[in-house]
Design goal:
The complex is a heterodimer of chains A (180) and B (131). Chain A is 50% helix and 23% strand. Chain A has 6 helices and 5 strands. Chain A has a 5-stranded antiparallel sheet with strand order 1-2-3-5-4. In chain A, a hairpin with a 5-residue loop joins strand 2 and strand 3. In chain A, helix 2 runs antiparallel to helix 3 and helix 3 packs antiparallel against helix 6. In chain B, strand 3, helix 1 and strand 4 form a beta-alpha-beta unit. Classes of the chains: A alpha+beta (180), B alpha/beta (131). At the A-B interface, helix 2, helix 3, helix 5 and helix 6 of A face helix 2 and helix 3 of B. Chain A: InterPro entries: DUF6272. Chain B: InterPro entries: SiaC. Chain B: Pfam families: SiaC (PF09345).
């Protein structure tokens, strides 16, 4: 058994300027409650209302995407686990990261999509966003997932970063990072 | 009973449709996981009003943060208004926002780009209204 030591965890969080983090099954109400806490932190941090709304928006899209993905796959609530971290970087920007288990093939498609978005400037992202918004709803599609990613990219001040770690059974863990 | 009344929650806006006055009021944040379920009722109410009433329909909006699925649902409602307007029906949107939060104005502006009916984006000065 690992020694019981929250101190090193705390040191690590402090060093990385982590304001808020969560790891585990994420329910609809948990998304709301953590979102509330996030809004309170941002207000206490004197974030500009627009910046606070962007951080909150990115957090909501990332976590709701995770829930939608698990639901679409017919996975259990426990499978709808998320690892969510909100931090500040050295430049003072807010960074919202989220990770979840995904099928390897879906993860590769997601990374390709993020790579493609990274090459688009603000105007091209807006055009892509409006195009996606106009697409008819597909039955059984991840509700607006494509739109969510573009929305996150538009709210970000740097290209989204993503990585995939292969697990067993054709599954992988995908990490997404948005700097606001 | 032709009025529509949906109380707001943390993640859903308060929605009040006043049939006799032709006013649909929506205020608050909107980020439910399933926005389709919520907005379907609003869509139906607007659709019915446009079909059965010849009077002006005004959307009074004080919406703040919208998740992307709420944005898609609002776009469907604006499309409905646009279609009615092109058929000669009087419709209007007034979207009021807090002057300090320009993100809301930008969001409203992106909707307005696709509309030809009267669509006002009005800044509220919280300092002025408080005094």
């Amino acid at each position: 058994m690992e020694p019981f030591d929250l101190f090193s965890m705390r040191e690590s969080y402090n060093r990385q300027q982590i304001m808020l983090c969560f790891n585990g099954p994420i329910s609809r109400s948990l998304i709301e409650e953590i979102g509330n806490a996030l809004r309170n932190y941002l207000a206490a941090d004197h974030a500009h209302p627009s910046a606070a709304m962007d951080v909150f928006g990115v957090y909501i899209e990332l976590t709701q995407n995770i829930r939608h993905y698990a639901q679409q796959k017919g996975w259990t609530e426990t499978d709808a686990s998320a690892t969510v971290v909100v931090a500040r970087n050295d430049a003072g920007h807010y960074v919202v990261s989220a990770g979840n288990i995904i099928e390897q093939a879906d993860g590769e498609a997601l990374l390709a999509c993020i790579d493609e978005l990274a090459g688009l400037d603000k105007a091209a992202l807006k055009a892509r966003y409006k195009e996606q918004l106009r697409k008819p709803r597909e039955a059984g599609a991840i509700s607006g997932a494509g739109l969510g990613l573009i929305d996150i990219a538009r709210k970000s001040s740097a290209p989204l970063q993503a990585s995939l770690r292969r697990l067993t059974d054709g599954r992988a863990f995908v990490s997404l990072r948005a700097e606001i | 009973m032709n009025d529509l009344s949906i109380p707001g929650s943390q993640s859903t806006p308060a929605i009040d449709g006043d049939w006799d006055r032709g006013i649909l009021l929506m205020q608050g944040d909107s980020y439910p996981e399933n926005s389709y379920q919520l907005f379907q009722q609003v869509f139906s109410w607007v659709e019915r009003f446009l079909l059965e009433s010849a009077r002006l329909l005004t959307l009074e909006l004080r919406l703040l943060y919208l998740n992307t699925s709420s944005i898609k649902a609002m776009m469907d409602i604006f499309d409905l208004l646009e279609e009615a307007y092109r058929d000669g029906k009087p419709v209007a949107v007034n979207w009021r926002y807090d002057l300090r939060n320009e993100r809301v104005a930008e969001l409203a502006e992106e909707f307005r780009e696709d509309c030809t009916f009267p669509f006002a984006i009005l800044a509220l000065d919280p300092a002025a209204s408080a005094s």
